[in-house]
Amino acid sequence: MTPLQEKIHFDTFGFIVKRELFRSEEMERFSDWYNDGFDAKCGPWDGSGYSQSFVPGIGLHEGFCDQYLANPRLLDTLENLMGEGFLMLGSDAQRFTAETPWHRDTAEKPMEPESSVDFLILKVVMYLDDLSEGPGCLSIMPGSHHKDCHKALQNVLRDRDQPIWSGGVTGAGVPPNKVPGAVLTRTKPGDIIFFNQRCFHSSWGGWLGRRYLGMTFGQKPTEEWHVEWIAHDCEQSHKLHSAPPYSEWLVKTENRHLQKLIDFILDKGFYKST
Fold first, then answer.
1. Contact predicate 69/258, CB 8 Å
2. From 2.60.120.620, 2.70.70.10, 1.50.10.140, 3.90.228.20, which CATH number describes the 3-267 domain?
3. pTM for this model (two decimals)
4. Is 47 left (phi over 0), alpha (psi -120 to 50) or beta?
5. Which of 13, 58, 132, 174 is most buried, by the most CB atoms less than 10 A from its CB?
6. Any alpha helices (H) in the chain, and if so which ranges?
């Protein structure tokens, strides 16, 4: 797709998948960094529990800042989708052991006007395993970031805003992993997913230990409630993870492209180191 087509696709359906954005040799390097970082910071994983997670995700290895986040292939795509002046809100890394039911990462916040255009929060997702056969890959409900579509789907994909697992049945009479219209992204290492976090998304039938690295970005704040939204999000994230949004390498970077991603939150005092 051309950049214009990508923008229209993203605005309309809420996501794009850029195939083979990173080469196989790059992904092999990322995979090694990911595994070594998890073992060093979280200890060996025995596969128990729902997942093993680490925040901030790109803090697993210094190279994720310079060779992944700072890569023009990624930053140019983000600028095309979000416009200039976007900022980074955080990142997370996980090793999954189970399915993930339909949910949205970003719900409305109290300062967000009902009649406003949504403040764009975008997630960049890299899976480090081959999920091209479907099980365990990210499923997205196209268009569900639009308010009317969200309202129509809320009580179908959720039960009184509680998750419906694969053994259950949705309000439409079908299992949640069989909902019509859902798109399975079916990625291979090197494919990168960009999606609006207000979209309903899920993952079904995944195998033990599949690896994920996600980064979250917000559009340039242009209204006062945008600033309040970001402050609220930073506060809630810190309460949830008890960890700073940025790795020490990112905070100390001399790369101006990376500095621009974090200057706003640092200047506003929203960053908490502990």
1. yes
2. 2.60.120.620
3. 0.96
4. left
5. 58
6. 3-13, 24-42, 63, 72-82, 147-157, 224-241, 248-251, 256-267
